[in-house]
Amino acid sequence: MEYLLGKYCASDDPNEIRIGIEAVKETLKTNYFRHDEANKAQSLVEKNGRHRFIDRVEVRFLPSETKYWASLDNFGYTRVHIPDDFHRRFERLLEGGIWALVDVEFRPNEDGAKGSPFHIVELKPIQLARFDFEEYSSGRKEFSTDEWIDALLRSVGLEPTRFDRRLKLLLLARLLPFVEKNYNFIELGPRGTGKSYAFSEMSPYCILISGGKASSANLFYNNARRKVGLVGFWDVVAFDEVAGMKVTDADTIQIMKDYMANGRFSRGVAQVHADASLAFVGNLNQPVEVLVQSSATDLFQPLPKEFDLAVIDRFHFYMPGWEAPKNSKDILTTHYGFVTDYLAEAFRVLRKENRIDSVEQFYRLGSHVEGRDAIAVKRTVSGFIKLLHPDGQYSKEEVREYLELALESRRRVKEQLKKRGSFEFYKTSFSYIDQEDGVERTVGVPEQGGKGTISQDPLPPGSVYTAGTDGDGKVGLFRLEVTLTAGSGKVRTPAGLDKGLKESLSRATSYFQSVKDKLGLAPTLAQKDICAEAVDLSGARVECACGVAFYVALMSAIQNRRLQAGTVVLGDLTIQGNLKGLPSITEPLQVAVENGAMRALVPISNKAQFTALPEEVVEKLDVIFYGDVDRAVMKAIEL
User: Fold this and answer.
1) 12 conformational bin, left if phi > 0, alpha if psi -120 to 50, beta if neither
2) Distance separating alpha carbons of residues 285 and 287, to the nearest angstrom
3) Would you say 418 and 389 are in contact if contact means Cβ atoms under 8 Å apart?
4) Residue 327 per-residue DSSP state
5) How far is the C-alpha of 368 from the C-alpha of 384, rounded, in Å?
6) What is the CA 461 to chain-centroid distance, rounded?
7) Residues 273-318 pLDDT 10s
8) pLDDT tens-digit map of 168-199
9) Strand order in the sheet with 317-320
10) Domain 450-636 in CATH 3.30.230.10
11) Are β-strands 221-222 and 227-228 bridged in parallel, bridged antiparallel, or unpaired?
12) Tens digit of pLDDT for each residue in 535-579?
């Protein structure tokens, strides 16, 4: 279709375009036949002696006959004579076939069962039959990076002037599986944002599977036929509407894990290698804010139940589909772009190149980016460089931009794993170090709030941040709020306050009641009620033991003095005021740093764990140890 439109409608004149479209319709009516019309097409050639078709032609060599035979898909015939000149001129005929205008002639068969009455006498490719990568690469030098990005987006049919730089790169990320071998991509988001378009329209080397059943025989290897599945025949295998994907046998997921990890798998005695990238697209049925904040949901909610933590951990890039715009006329381009067949050939050549060392020319990855995380990040950067710098010319600043997006997209995967699998995946503070100046920079995930969760400005009196872990290692981050209102000395809490928080508040207020006379506060509080609230900032619903934080908040409210900005208070206390340390301070402090904390008050009983803290925590957080609850108050409240 693209070829015909280019041939008949290459004009800006509306009248010429209208005439051209009529010509396209007539050509399709006369020369294009569907699969179920194959017998009609063959009869037409026999009747008229010759006819022109638009069809996909593939040539194969049969050693037993020392002869080349052509097959035409829609014509429905696999033994069509073809002159040797064609496959020598158009080598792609031998490499999977091409779409072409084909003149087929009928000649009586005189060779018996091995012969054929059909002969190709003329062939004109309408799909690129030869590709010059050097020309493509040198042509890139005539564009700036911004111009090249815009050209690629217009080739996809989008108008780049409607998008900011970040959104442009995210939309181009949909093309990463086309240029990186064995790349695992996922995009989940609202309906109607064009998630599957690239996989259905941008390359003849990609197959899009819409929902349906997924079996090991179909996808990977058919033992009965001893034949490799889809991953052996396509550059990209994409799954649309992944929520409706039905896994028909238990082996499928296990083989998928092996394949997603290293591009190979075993079936019986066969060890199979393949290069196909896997892409999964689907819809989120809830707002991303709800999925992130609720402890019962996460950003992988639509995936089939068979997609366990091991499968999810193999995704290299999670495209935030909620940032993509809804399809509308406003975002479609009216400007020229590359012919998709041409781009598809360029992408296929680029798949063979390795740019995975691009990051290490300028940057080192932080201590939390290791194993699969490092591989995912490096391959994503490699993919962006192939897409945007096929000539191999790029700057340090451009690599930094791709690196930050790669770290963010992989961290998005890891954050959901941490939410599902707790402590095993706690290393999510992704960062990179500039090799030139040694500065380390952390990359957050926008939808989770990142550094903005803990305010860099002082909170009102009576407010304090705290954190804690439960028995499964899950971390909760809270903001406690204590206020004094007119009353009779009662403690008031909201009905939904978590049990662990309520018990911590009870211990803190019990201790306070025992010392209020010594502090000279009894007369003041006799006519005041203490109102306490806790805001779950992480949505983890962790039972947090935080008696010290409640006590500090209470004293802050009574004194009407604010805490120092960015302070997190850890630790619990008994009704007699004795301190209770945390099982581990590593995870709570890690979460505190990721969310913008600058200072942390920690029970002195946890001091031995200080040496085990990650470098980033030690560098970015002022950790202050306290030996009693009164010293915690003194160190927390502003002077």
Assistant:
1) alpha
2) 7
3) no
4) P
5) 22
6) 41
7) 999 999 999 999 888 888 887 767 889 988 998 999 999 999 999 9
8) 999 999 999 999 999 999 999 999 999 999 89
9) 206-210, 236-240, 277-283, 184-189, 317-320
10) yes
11) antiparallel
12) 888 776 788 899 999 999 999 999 989 998 899 999 999 999 999
Please give the backbone phi and psi of residue 193, each rounded to the nearest 5 degrees, phi first: -115, 10
Residue with tokens 């599902």: 420
Q: Give the rounded percent of residues in the chain with a pLDDT score beyond 70.
A: 95
Query: Mapping DSSP to helix (H, G, I), strand (E, B) and coil, where does residue 507 land?
Result: helix
CA-based Rg of the chain, rounded to a whole angstrom? Answer: 32
Q: Which CATH number fits domain 134-353: 3.40.1350, 3.30.450, 3.40.390, 3.40.50?
A: 3.40.50
Which residue's entry shows tokens 């495209």?
A: 319
Strands (E), 107-249: 118-125, 184-189, 206-210, 213-214, 221-222, 227-228, 236-240, 246-247
- Could you tell me which residues come within 8 angstroms of residue 113 by beta carbon, excluding any fewer than 6 positions away? none
Instruction: List phi, psi (to 5°) of 469.
Output: -125, 155
Compute the mean pLDDT over every residue in the chain, rounded to the nearest whole number.
88
Sorted by sequence, the CB contacts under 8 Å of residue 242 that are 6+ apart come out as 186, 188, 211, 280, 281, 282, 302, 303, 304
Q: Quick one: 22 exposed, middle or buried, by C-beta within 10 A (0-12, 13-18, 19+)?
A: exposed
pTM for the full model?
0.68
Q: Cα–Cα–Cα angle for 134, 137, 138, nearest 5°?
A: 85
The CA angle 493-496-500, to the nearest 5 degrees, is: 80
Using one digit for the tens of pLDDT, what is the confidence trace for 594-613?
888 999 999 999 999 999 88
Instruction: Report which of 525, 555, 395, 550 is spatially closest to residue 466, judged by C-alpha positions.
Output: 550
pLDDT tens digits for range 104-160? 999 988 777 778 999 999 998 876 667 889 999 999 999 999 999 999 999 999 999
φ and ψ at residue 169, rounded to 5 degrees: -65, -40
Q: What is the pLDDT of residue 159?
A: 96
Comparing CA positions, the residue from 208, 217, 210 lying closest to residue 177 is 208
Residues in a beta bridge with 346: none
- pLDDT tens digit string along 347-364? 999 999 999 999 999 999
Alpha-carbon gap, residue 132 to 619, rounded angstroms: 51
Cα–Cα–Cα angle for 240, 245, 246, nearest 5°? 160
- Terminal C-alpha separation, the chain: 74
